């Protein structure tokens, strides 16, 4: 009888320990989700606060869509997905283009009628997880805020070639899949 009672008490203690362990794991998972959620909110907050050239901010939705499509088509035709990884670091995009893309992203627009094909993006972009992608878009927004003079006109901003293939890839990926 004593052995049975002793065995029963040990089973109950083990069940309590297992339940406490499972509850602590669940709490850690919920905390991680909250951190990821806050990080995304920070990127969205930064994007909402970003200032763009007046000519771009005054574009109507149709003009902004057309301009974004032109940039998207240029990106697509350059076929970065099939190139070596070091191409992502190549600086070949200008600030006017990036301003249009960021405005499009800021307005939470979607590229309607565009084939959402991940094969457009280099595997190094596709391999980024949610958190890394969020850090990348925050990096682009910070770079924009710190390096772009929004008072310049279109011609000046078009001569301001400071954006890498990676920067443009990140913005376009956000527009197509995470916006």
TrEMBL record:
Keywords: Membrane, Transmembrane, Transmembrane helix. The chain crosses the membrane at residues 6-25. The keyword Transmembrane applies. This is Uncharacterized protein.
């Amino acid at each position: 009888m004593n052995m049975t009672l002793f065995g029963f008490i040990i089973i109950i203690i083990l069940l309590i320990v297992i339940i406490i362990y499972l509850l602590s794991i669940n709490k850690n998972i919920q905390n991680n989700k909250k951190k990821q959620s806050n990080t995304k909110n920070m990127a969205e907050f930064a994007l909402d606060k970003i200032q763009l050239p007046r000519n771009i901010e005054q574009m109507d939705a149709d003009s902004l869509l057309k301009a974004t499509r032109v940039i998207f088509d240029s990106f697509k035709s350059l076929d970065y997905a099939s190139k070596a990884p070091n191409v992502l670091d190549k600086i070949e995009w200008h600030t006017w283009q990036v301003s249009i893309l960021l405005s499009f992203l800021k307005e939470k627009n979607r590229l309607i009628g565009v084939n959402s094909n991940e094969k457009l993006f280099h595997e190094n972009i596709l391999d980024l997880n949610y958190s890394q992608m969020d850090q990348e878009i925050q990096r682009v927004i910070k770079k924009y805020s710190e390096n772009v003079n929004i008072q310049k006109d279109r011609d000046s901003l078009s001569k301001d070639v400071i954006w890498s293939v990676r920067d443009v890839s990140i913005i376009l990926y956000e527009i197509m899949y995470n916006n």
